[in-house]
Amino acid sequence: MKHIDIFIHFLCLLSGIVTALLGFLLYFKYRIKAIRDYALFIFSTTLTVLATTLLNYLTYFITMNPVPAFQTGGTILFGLLITFINHAFTMFALGITNKKLSLPRKLMLALPWTVGAGAVVSAIVYYLSNPAAAHPKFIEIMAASQIFMLFAAFVIYSILISINLKKIENPDLKKALKALAVVFIVYIPLQTAMIILKPDMLYVMMSRNLFYIAINLVSVIYAAKYFFIKAPLVSERIEIAESFTAKYGITAREKDVIGLLLGGYAIKQIASELDCSFKTVNNHIYNVYRKTGVTSKMELLNCVKESRI
Questions:
Q1: The pTM is what?
Q2: Cα–Cα distance between 76 and 179 in angstroms, integer?
């Protein structure tokens, strides 16, 4: 079982690194905050896997016994990373659904940071006063409460995303979010039950890593499609300023085509959405490129963005 666990850890780390890298590359390419927050979410989950892997290796394969210093270091890393995962996922969910960070949501964000900071400070103080002693129960309870707050955030914001799926016009993004919602819905109850009924860390960590792998696979497929194949990834139809249409003489129909094109729609989908032929859409795109002097969707996106400054 340990060999399987090591293999799953390796696969989780590899998929996490690839997903985070693609996420950051997409962010630097398109400068969309929701992509940045999601990349940070994946990056922090990957760091969590790396940290627990190293700590488990140092504890059980080198010293063969739990070491207070390693335990304190693990608590500090765990407290910071779990809280950051919570924060990054919350910001991603709000960004992708275009929701504001209201006061209740600010309080929801502040609570994990407060508990996490308390666990970190308590672990450091206790270690400095009792270097050879294992952590007391209350520190473990604080760490466990962080996990359940993270689960609560996953559930709440997954529901928020699901409720707002109809408002997301990018069809590929909608599919990816649906797949992620299924992963969250299946995982959270199972992991919670496992922690309560059978708190064997080997199985808990293995199920966590399988969960991260599933998220990473969905994310890689979607991110790779937009990084290597498609045009800009956006969660909604791009806002086209009047100054842009006036400057380049863009007609109302061409404006509709631009919005859908930059929203990730294929030409067939645009034709279906606007109830016109494939050839008509192609002609509109040709005219837009000619008027604006661009040669790609990326250049068109930048041109639209510049007109809003």
A1: 0.67
A2: 33
